[in-house]
Amino acid sequence: MKTKTTILFLIAIFMIACNAEHKISIEDKKFDKYFFNEKNIPVVEGKVLNLTDEEIENTKLEYSIVTPFDQDQFQVKKYGILNADGTFELEIDYAFPYQQIWLHIGESFYAGIYANSDLYIELDADSLREKRVYMNGAGVKYLGTDGELNTFLNNHILYKREEQLSIAEKLSTLSRDKNLDYESFLSKYDSLYILLHNIDDEFIEKNPSPYSWILKNERLSEYYGDLCVRHWSPTGPKMSENLFNDIINHKPYLVSNNGSSFYNYLFTYLGRRAGKYEPIIVDDFLGYTKLSDAEKVKVNEYSNIKAQSERGNPFDTIRFRELSESIYPLLNDTITAFQTSKTLKYIDSLFTDSKADFLKLKLTSKDPKEKKVIIETALNTINTEWCKEILESGYKESIEKMASIERILKGEKSFTSTKNIGEPIAEMPFGAKLYKVDKLKAEELLSNIKTAFNNKALILDFWATWCGPCLDEMPFSKKLREEFKSQPIEFVYLCTSSGSDIESWKAKIIELEVGGTHLFVESSIESELMKLFSFGGFPSYAFIDKSGNYKAGAISRMSYLEKEELKKLLVEK
């Protein structure tokens, strides 16, 4: 097939281009030494010229750093300040090569920058007042060692922008088409990527640069990553061995959206290939779990009833259901460790120690208790020092989060008025009470919310006015809230201030007519609160029962939460 042949040709050209010795990837063995050399931590500084004193005081500086860690830490949100003279410096924690940072300064500048050595960004406020700049434009200068790199890559994003976006939309539509046969999908998929490769080549020809290889590397990371997603389904087509070998041998050189997504998507696919998601056979775990004698009797009873059902004999269906719901929590730690071990062994069989150990950083869970078990299981298999340091840090963080959430939710605190959860803004006729939160610390806010609704269960809904999936879920949340009005449960909606304002927030609530408690939360406070629950994006949901117990993973989407399931959550202890 011509398209496949062309793609392979492009890949071959790319592999030749990437053989230069000076490039380093986080999966390389030599990266271990690179990571621990503090001189390799890049420096990003800058200055906004021609700002008034009032503008300096009111201009927000926010940035999200792309990381190579697990999906929950895909991007780490940070906040900076403009000094009195308009200068600023970004805080970068690790020595990662070509690390992508999404930088937002006020309402006038937004760009994806790349930090590898040193970068200085000079912005002219006089020009930016006239026209907001996206990526690059009038009033923007990228200087320093990484200046040419950033100018080249941001100009590429803008090159034939509408055409690139149109192709990306077609790729998205193609990926969602589950009725298309596999061969037709591959043919159309390759054809669209060839169009993107052609745009890249045309841009490179017009803008010769020593960084041209980065465009090829980024495009292949995107290409292979999306193919991994296509093969996630266990009922879908099997990936050919040739394609599988090409994918596992691909090496991203950037810690970017495309590079990190490739590793995340590959890791998920490897987990399925390793059999992580195959049905669990409870009997297999009896010899490995720390069950009490009474609990072992319960598991044996479950196994006996299950055997009766499989032989077609009459059995107690009600008792079987009760046992099914009770024994899996007893075995959860053991099952988690077992599934993790399957993935670890498979990864070790495929890759060198340095690459296998890096991929193990992708192991995670939104439940801090599960995450603790996962890290304990993985740590014994890691030989690469930088990976071990990151995983040990994650282990410590999980322990601290478990203790922090328990301390906040269980802590007793007197309640005097609803002002403890923020400044009252308005009360709507459809039962919505609106508050502004810009002064409390994240832990204090969580504690105050629990105290304000004592003896009630809580659903915390983290959302944003610009988040499409968040808005899509609101009607389901509204319906459940109305159905549970008489029950001891409070729906608390925490909207981030990032990318929005109070009037837009109020307008969206009025448009949706969603009752309940609504908080407009300053973005840094919301970000810290979400970190407590290991939430990485919007929408995210936390369920806390009336006794103050956080039920990790109880709600993934409001549209998935059935009425009977919520009833069950309310009565569980």
From TrEMBL:
<dbReference type="Pfam" id="PF08534">
    <property type="entry name" value="Redoxin"/>
</dbReference>
<keyword id="KW-0201">Cytochrome c-type biogenesis</keyword>
<dbReference type="InterPro" id="IPR036249">
    <property type="entry name" value="Thioredoxin-like_sf"/>
</dbReference>
<feature type="signal peptide">
    <location>
        <begin position="1"/>
        <end position="20"/>
    </location>
</feature>
<keyword id="KW-0732">Signal</keyword>
<dbReference type="InterPro" id="IPR050553">
    <property type="entry name" value="Thioredoxin_ResA/DsbE_sf"/>
</dbReference>
<dbReference type="GO" id="GO:0030313">
    <property type="term" value="C:cell envelope"/>
</dbReference>
<dbReference type="GO" id="GO:0016853">
    <property type="term" value="F:isomerase activity"/>
</dbReference>
<feature type="domain" description="Thioredoxin">
    <location>
        <begin position="419"/>
        <end position="566"/>
    </location>
</feature>
<dbReference type="InterPro" id="IPR013766">
    <property type="entry name" value="Thioredoxin_domain"/>
</dbReference>
<dbReference type="InterPro" id="IPR013740">
    <property type="entry name" value="Redoxin"/>
</dbReference>
<dbReference type="GO" id="GO:0017004">
    <property type="term" value="P:cytochrome complex assembly"/>
</dbReference>
<protein>
    <submittedName>
        <fullName>Thiol-disulfide isomerase or thioredoxin</fullName>
    </submittedName>
</protein>
<keyword id="KW-0413">Isomerase</keyword>
<keyword id="KW-1015">Disulfide bond</keyword>
<dbReference type="GO" id="GO:0016491">
    <property type="term" value="F:oxidoreductase activity"/>
</dbReference>
<keyword id="KW-0676">Redox-active center</keyword>
